[in-house]
Amino acid sequence: MTAKSATNAGENTGAKGKLKNADRSVSDDLELLRMIIQESPSLRNVVMDKLQQAKTRIDKEAKSPGAKLAANKSK
What we know:
The chain is an all-alpha fold and 75 residues long. It has one domain (3-74). The protein is built from three helices and no strands. It has helices at 3-39, 44-62, 65-74. The longest helix is centred in the first third of the chain and has 37 residues, at 3-39. The chain starts with a helix and ends with a helix.
């Protein structure tokens, strides 16, 4: 394995680890939101609005030129 391929392998492992941690964090956040909604149904609309705002922001970031460049590099 060359030094460059070893570096790339390390970067990929790090990125995968970060993605797994992000998935776990999102899952924990969603569980917390579910519990909040169950305890206080009146907060449901507030939570749903915040989720929609987050989804919109994520969609915009995913369509940004930087995100497309990063996606192409990972292939």
